[in-house]
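Blackboard transcription, Thursday session:
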Amino acid sequence: MTNLVSARNVSKSFGQLRAVDNVSFDIEKGRILGLIGPNGAGKTTLLKAVLGLTDCDGELLVLGIDPFRDRRQLMKDVCFIADVAVLPRWIRVHQLLDFVAATHPGFSRERVNKFLAETRIRKTAKVRELSKGMITQLHLAIIMSIDAKLLVLDEPTLGLDIIFRKEFYANLLGDYFDGERTILITTHQVEEIEQLLTDIMFIDQGRILLHSPMEDLADRFVQLITSGSHADAARKLGPISESSLFGKSVLTFEGVDRTRLQPFGEMHTPTVADLFVAKVKGARA
Amino acid sequence: MMIGHQRVLIRRELWEHPAIYITPLVIGLIVLLVTLTGQVSFSAYGEAVNIAIVGAQSVDEQHRATAVGGVLAVVATIFSIGAWIVMIFYSLDALYTERKDKSILFWRSLPITDAETVVSKLITALFVIPFVTVAAVMLTQVLLLAITSVWVMFQGGDASHLVWAPAPLADAWFAVIVLALALPLWLSPLIGWFLFASAFTKRSPLLLALLPIIVLPLLEKLLIGSRYIGDAIWVRSFRPPIINFEQLKHIEINGQLSLPEGSQALSLSDQLDISSFLVSPSLWAGLVVCGLLVTAAIYVRRYRDESY
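(Written on the board underneath:)
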């Protein structure tokens, strides 16, 4: 089985609102997928469905099982960090480690001790005594010490300063990711994780706008900076979005051969952030 | 599988709610302190003390046993009130705080079922709290007797004759253990209701929990004129069938304790009625109600996603 997650026509509605609207996708083993969307796009709902925290329509399989029905089984192989603030504040660090060790078959005390030794976290401290950054370090240390097949991170670095954020991702890539594991991650700070992703998925209004390996983006998308009559000619080739920058037009094309665009101006491969804006604006237009 | 995680789940409840053991500890300390200061200040009345000790030495064994037994019963009663308050606040908090501080998302990221978690909280309320209390009661009673015997010896009395020999410890402890098992089971529908309120409410579990207990009897009285609900709540709260209230009526305390005819000394376990408790339909109906409410609490924790 190479598909770790497999979704077919998955939907989830809250009353009139279709938070997730008939999406289908597969996530292969060993990928690091960035799930990117504006607030209220349905990212969190989709993650909740994958984690078995909410029911959904359609067919969703994670590691070959129904995440909602077989949650307990699922949680043996899936880890998640939902938000930075969810560790119980009253607990002491050593109690937390004892608890996870007693309940999670894949947890390694050796690993967690190694990770914690590199931080300033004392085992006797209560979580409420730790700074926000330290709580995230602690949570990440626990998660990275669990031998899981799928790791889901929903805005894991929200509210942390840049140093902690960089360190977080460095640890994740350096100490955790080994090509066997699969990571699913959402964040608003796309630029910071762009380099570590292998795949990207854009989601807006409950629908998937794009799901592609990172290395295909350069072939598939191109950004043309142009002006005047060149811009008019280029527009005939059907850009997916247009914006202006210092009086010039920035056109983004999907699936248009670069040689055809060459005469009209300067070409770039769009950044993920640019691409995201282009896709969302294009889809909403 | 269900049992495997219970140990660590219950340990977690003790970590999170130190009131479970601190409350009986504090009650025990207060009881002992009051005893100590009482005895020390009573020592000032030299002659009265002598008379009391001589008097105590001259009354018969049964009366001494009754007196010491009465003290032991009062101690146990103070603890049980404390335990009941801890139980109420514990079960109201058990499934509410984890939602309020969002730690439920962490707990649910581990391979533990919601049923396991909720059951561990029920076990903590119905068994762990009472038995921590029982241990504290026994310890306090022994220390109380020890303090008293030291005092009696200082006053020139014979401690083994006055304190230890008549102390009906076996009888008192048997009664305490039976009550620690029986009363929580009898109160289980209320505990189940509190756990459900704790899992269900958006704010103030206490308010939600008390609302029907206060409003329903009033409504019944106003609309139908009857008072079945109020009576049911009264009986559930204050008339557990494990205690033989008919028999208790015959014990009178007015300056002097008078026992029902035929009994030698006051026996606490004699006031229990285990067989009629076990066959009481109310007990079993209550357990069923508790089961239903706890199932509903599990269902709410499992299916309602609001905290993420």
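Lecturer's comment: The interface with chain B takes residues 44, 48, 51, 53-55, 71-76, 79-83, 85-92, 95, 98-100, 102-105, 139 of chain A (CB under 8 Å).
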